[in-house]
Amino acid sequence: MAPGRLFARQCLVMLTDTLAIILGGGQGSRLFPLTASRSKPAVPIGGKYRLIDVPISSCLHADIRRIYVLTQFNSASLNRHISNTYRLDRFSGGFVEILAAEQTPDNPNWYQGTADAVRQAARHFRGYPADYYLILAGDHLYRMNYAALIDAHRQQRADITIAAQPVDADTATQMGIFRFDREGKIVAFEEKPNAGRLREIARSIPEGATFATHADAEPFMASMGVYVFSRQILLDMLERESGDDFGRELIPGALARYTVKPYLYRGFWADVGTIESFYEANIMLCRPGAPFRFYDPDYPTYTHLRHLPGSRLTDCHIRSSIIDDGCFLEQCTIEESVVGIRTVVRSGTRITRSVLLGADYYGHDEADGSALGIGRDVVIDRVIMDKNARIGDGSRLTNERGLEHHDGDGYYIRSGIIIVPKGVVIPAGTTV
């Protein structure tokens, strides 16, 4: 048995007293137009998965089987995916349930931030027996042993434990950064400090302090947005504190009153909350030796089982790419790209450095050249093509003008990446 799985089994008694809360995020404007009709956790990734599958799968591998997902924007597709995928044994008492924002007589407001979302949802989970609350983000890509995290929280007798990762100075300016005392207790937390402030933080760490001796290339410790709270600590904080966000308000305010400990994580982690980071994460999956892969024989990532046939390729050239189930590829070239489920690519087409999210159904050939998928003699490079889109024959989507940000007729450009939104038809012969 794999060591990680054995550890999870050893912690089973403890983890039955853990309830997971996954934050679905806000409007997801940085991922627009992929979030135009879906919430961030419902965005497809890696050809066949959804972002929400990442934290839920890690919870299930750690035998955490009571899971709430908090969302308030475009939750229909997320709700459908979860109800079709995560049907847990009814005798175990486990569940994966959506808690959408709701107006009540006591609170007519929508979620105002991460802490406010948990505060408003507390009336739903307060009655469940749980010694620990595991709070996660729904738009991160990583694989963590939550059993080890919660066991560290218990052994350190912490009130709050925050998963932390070593980062370099450039990354640190985009994240929440910790400062420690000599015993490794977190004594300060700053959200997205600038370069000057980072130098002050580095000088303020006591010599020999725990977590101060990691690699020189990654001298700072950043919050991953993964929290473990002891039950009463979280409930008291939500009741007493008025802040709406964990990272900016509740956690900094808790440092003087509670024992807040870090949990060092050294694996791959990425926040895929922007178009650029989402694109880079997908392309990374195609590379040999990628630091993260969905394939893992001991810790598979679960998703909706669709019973699709194997993909059919006819006289194609494929290099460093992922081709998912149910695709029909005909005499085409595909390099460094992710090709999602049910994708149809016709002859003479060349696809490079692109992310195709696939389709929800199979279309039929149409005389006007707008059949579902990608037509003949098409060239696309650095493109994200959302589900059920159509690109007509002879089109060239290569961003020839080198635009960084642009709204076009049926497409968008963000960070130089062309995005074809869900269900859009790109007419034959279009050049971008």
Summarize the structure.
This protein has 11 helices and 31 strands.
3D structure, described in words:
It is a single chain. This protein has 432 residues and is of the alpha/beta class. Helix content is 23%, strand content 27%. It is built from eleven helices and 31 strands. Strand 29 and strand 30 form a beta hairpin. The N terminus is likely disordered.
Question: What is the CA-atom radius of gyration, in angstroms?
Answer: 23 Å
Span of the ends, CA to CA? 52 Å
Which structural class do the helices and strands define? alpha/beta
Q: What fraction of the residues are assigned to beta strands by DSSP?
A: 25-35%
Q: What's the arrangement of strands in the largest beta sheet?
A: 5-4-1-6-11-8-12
Strand tally is 31
In the predicted model, the low-confidence regions spanning at least 5 consecutive residues are 1-14
State the helical fraction: 10-25%
